[in-house]
Known about the structure:
Blueprint: E1 2-11, E2 14-22, E3 27-31, H1 38-46, E4 53-58, E5 61-62, H2 68-71, E6 74-78, H3 89-99, H4 105-114, H5 128-140, E7 146-150, H6 158-174, E8 179-183, H7 187-191, E9 196-201, E10 204-210, H8 211-216, E11 219-223, H9 225-230, E12 236-242, E13 245-250, H10 253-259, E14 264-267, H11 270-279
Parallel strand pairs: 3-8, 3-9, 6-7, 7-8
Antiparallel strand pairs: 1-2, 1-4, 4-5, 9-10, 11-13, 11-14, 12-13
Amino acid sequence: MVKVDNLVKNYGSFRLDVSMEIPDGTVTGIVGKNGAGKSTTIKSILGLVKPDGGHVTINGKEASKLTAKDKEEIGVALSDSGFSTFLTVKDITAIMKKMYPSFNEEVFRRNCSSQRLPFDKAIKEFSTGMRAKLRVLIAMSHNARILIMDEPTAGLDVEARNDILDLLREYLVEDEKRSILITSHISSDLEGLCDDIYLIHDGKVILHEDTDAILGNYGVLKVNEATYEKLDKSYILSTKKDHFGYACFTNEKQFYAENNPNIVIENSDIDDLILMMTGGN
């Protein structure tokens, strides 16, 4: 389990202040606009940037006090980090064997082969998709209980993205107590993988919800000005004015469907969540 209590990081006028929890056996996604604080949250949890306040515990231990053995239980894949691009997969295998006693060379080699990653070619000759797959396979290679990933599918085509998502699903199936914390700006990736979602805006968590609830209970009402004035706004989370009247974001679309049968109600997704909760009133 990862638990974050009032994690604070200041960068000039920007202030990150978040709390969240990733229980065992769950996949948690972090979403938000660029600059909202997603990557800062990940790096602060990992100690790659020093927090200015708050507490992070991983598997019941203070993150700053984790031993080398404790850290073996955390697999990390960041978009802006990795091994030197002059190394080969063969070189990385040798390094990982020395770094992690729990490194599973047989599984790592088999996974690299199945993803068509050559063993003797320098990483600098890999495509963007191949490099992304390698980062994920490295993170999974030492039997980590928790994967922490920042934009693992960014910049990839659909096939490469699906390959990575399949790898993550296989990782979860192998041990039901494994967890993943992942950021992404590709909502469809998260919708098919995550159990719950945290929405960060201007450094703060403004919404935490189960993915099934977002896709099943949330919706966007399309109403003209006259209808909007009469509308029961008890379950309206945000409102955005547009050319036809108002778009109203709700977490109880069934309530409005039953009580306002003539209103147009569109199903929502994570993109709608971000757009309406960070751009509406």
